[in-house]
Amino acid sequence: MAQTTSVATSAEPSDEGPDFEPPPVARRSGRLTDRWIARLSVAPAMLFLVGLFLFPLLWAVVLSFSTYSATRNQPIEWVWFGNYVDVLTSDQVWERAITTLIFVVAAVGLQTLVGFGIAWLLSRQQRGRGALTVLLLLPMMLSPVVVGAFWKLMLDSQFGVVNRFLEAVGVGQVLWLTQPRLALFSLVVVDSWQWTPFIMVIALAGLTAVPDYLFEAAEIDRASEWFKFRHITLPLVWPLLLIAIMFRAIDAFRLFDIVYVVTGGGPGSSTETLSYHLYKIAFQNSDTAVASAYGILMVIVVTIATQFYVKYLTRVQAK
Amino acid sequence: MRPARALRGGLLLLAVVLMLFPAVWMLITSLKDIQDVYAATVFDFTPTLDNYRDVFVSTSAAGGASDLVTNFSNSVIITALATLLATLIGVPAAWGFSRFDLKGAKDQLFFILSTRFMPPVVVVIPLFVMYRWAGLYDTRTGLVLLYTAFNLPFTIWMMKGFVDEIPGEYEDALMMDGYSRLQAFRQGSLPLLVPGILATAVFSMIFTWNEFTFAVFLTGSTARTVPPAIAGLLGGQSTPWGLVAAAAMVFALPVLAFGFLVRKHLVAGMTFGAVRR
User: Fold this and answer.
1) Residue B38 sits at the chain A interface (C-beta within 8 Å)
2) Minimal Cβ distance to B122: which of A34, A158, A299
3) Per the CB < 8 Å rule, is A253 touching B9?
4) CA–CA separation, A49 vs A38, rounded Å?
5) Is B187 on the interface with A (CB under 8 A)?
6) Which residues in chain B have Cβ-Cβ distances shorter than 8 Å to A298?
7) How far is CA B155 from CA B3, B85, B202, in A?
8) How does pLDDT run across B144-180, given as a tens digit for each residue?
């Protein structure tokens, strides 16, 4: 039986035992048809994701129409869209929305500028580019808790190394984490420290993919450096950069961990993002139903914003 | 042109220093006693390993293992099991999406990706209610199940890329010779996929090991992993900075070691497979 096949290539070690002996051609499909194999290969993964992400989300929708609280033992009433109205008409929520918006714009903006800048420097660097890239990726691989701890230590107004350095060069004490405006700025810095490398690697991939002949052609036409950058490099890197910006913006919009570790939302509520506010409503006030409505609204906002962004993205890429 | 090159080199060096300094500073802090932490000197201190001892040995009079030891063992067990499960479930799914014309495959893949972009705080509210009801709150099983699901989008997207790179004709040829579909996968594609599977698994490990938000809300004291435990140390009136720094170092070390192992795939892994070389 085994002699009838010619597949005994190097891919099949001879000592695998009878398990791997090829069956006769007539039985090759076995008991499982391709269609079933396809379904079964995907089913467990879908089951997990539906069970642990989609189902909880649907449950949250149900809870959001009620007065359910995870800790208080009270009869549940159905208030339908009451919680949604409460959330949308709350001044506190809008305040957090503005804080979050400022954070997203500042953090993603800073990361894009610096990340692209470093990528551009790296793309011009021939020697040791690979090793440098790996070194620069370090912050991304650390837990947000570890990153938060690093910066909470460094930004401490009394014994933080940043203030010590500033004192040494003659600048007085700066209250990085206890002055409202500055605290939000500090969070922007912390988030940017961790995620600038993300923009950097994506921009770098775009920059190194720009074909040399374009520059050579521009060289012949005696184009200026700026012209080359504006009309060759940027148009080719821009679509890729837009994708990176989208990923970062979605991530920054839901920022929670660094706020929790570094400022705890303070001073006052000046660094409370939407996610942090939501956590306080859900786990400190135990208003589970209101928090559910709040969360569903956040998901809706992200989804709509992403849809618009993707539309814009496909238009840019079509050019 | 020469000054321009020097300037570029200098700026790059500055970037590297800025990116590495916080980690170096934490390392230095982990070697200081509390007076030296507050003195914030760079070199002028007597190094001590006491903080590292405190990570593992309880400071109470009775001695014994510290609480952080429990957190570390939870982290190790949960990370290992969740990574294993996500790989066992995710690789076949990636292969299925790559090889077959599944109905609505595009929508399913989009759904899979979108789960990774949901705000964790939103998902964790109903999950908390569900877990308490099902008796999964503050259990390792609960976190293993959640992190398996958490790693699946990444595993499927990464592995689909790797499977796509191996021509399907390879398996077709084996089937012509009488192998079944599954045997063709096992003998044709699987051996070629092993490096990709290992790299993907290492990234799942790193993501699970680092995860904070789900862990802080779905665990109390029994199943608590290291990230919420470190956050707990930071929360009090006076932070034991030496201990925090040493714990953070011990915690980050495996990540750096594994990151070094997969350095070739680092860019692909950290960008969700969006950039591959």
Assistant:
1) yes
2) A299
3) no
4) 17
5) yes
6) 119, 122
7) 46, 11, 10
8) 999 999 999 999 999 998 999 888 888 888 888 888 8
Portions of chain B given CATH number 1.10.3720.10? 67-270
The answer to whether B263 contacts A125, with C-beta atoms less than 8 Å apart, is no
Task: Spell out which residues of chain B touch residue A30, defining contact as CB-CB under 8 Å.
Answer: 180-182
Q: Which CATH superfamily is domain A82-318 in?
A: MetI-like (1.10.3720.10)
pLDDT in tens, A162-202: 888 888 888 888 888 988 889 999 999 999 999 999 999 99
Alpha helices in chain A (DSSP H): 34-49, 55-64, 82-88, 91-124, 129-136, 138-141, 144-154, 161-168, 180-208, 212-220, 225-228, 234-253, 257-258, 274-279, 288-318
Which residues in chain A have Cβ-Cβ distances shorter than 8 Å to B8? Answer: 121, 124-125
Confidence of residue A43 (pLDDT cuts 50, 70, 90): very high
Q: With cut-offs at 50, 70 and 90, classify the pLDDT of residue B276.
A: low
Q: Identify the pLDDT of residue B223.
A: 93
Instruction: Give the Cα separation of A300 and B105 in Å (integer).
Output: 23
Domain boundaries, chain A: 2-64, 82-318
Q: Which CATH number applies to B67-270: 1.10.3720.10, 1.20.1250.20, 1.10.940.10, 3.30.1360.120?
A: 1.10.3720.10
